[in-house]
Amino acid sequence: MKKKAGGSDEEGGSGSARRAKGSETQVDVLPKEVVLQMVKDMLARLSDELGDKEEVVVEDDVLLAFTESTCAFIDHLCARARDLCKQSGKKTVDADHVLDALKDINFPQFVRDLEAALEAFKEENAGETSEEIATSDECQKQEDEQSSEDS
After folding, report:
1. Which of 2, 60, 68, 98 is most buried (most C-beta within 10 Å)?
2. Is 1 in the same domain as 75?
3. What residue stretches are annotated with the Transcription factor CBF/NF-Y/archaeal histone domain (predicted)?
4. What is the pLDDT of residues 116-131, one digit of tens each?
5. Residue 82: HSE in the Cβ half-sphere, 13 Å Cα cutoff
6. Cβ–Cβ contacts within 10 Å for residue 122, how many?
């Protein structure tokens, strides 16, 4: 019988760091619960589209495959965006580097959604500096943590 995903793992729980294979550096792993929820939401949406109303079960090995695949995709995208940044003579990776990197690694279908998300982000944060946005995000996180502790 295969174990269902959703619990904490033996190696330190969700969000714990792991050693990259063949590397001495620590690599942050995406939080297990976040990946699980994203996968279950997407599978449920796909099931609804097909008229299948059964509960979606995600096993641990599938969750690991999604987590590792996501990390590999992010690594690949970051490396290409960094290369494009260096080629342009800049030191800071910006949104245009990421958009161009998506095209370069053959994922142009994500560009339109990312551009829309960036535009929405800019409109929502118009007039704020990146420091103000980071401070605002940190304050919101602290408020969320406080309210969950109070519950």
Report:
1. 98
2. yes
3. 58-102
4. 999 999 999 887 766 6
5. 6
6. 10
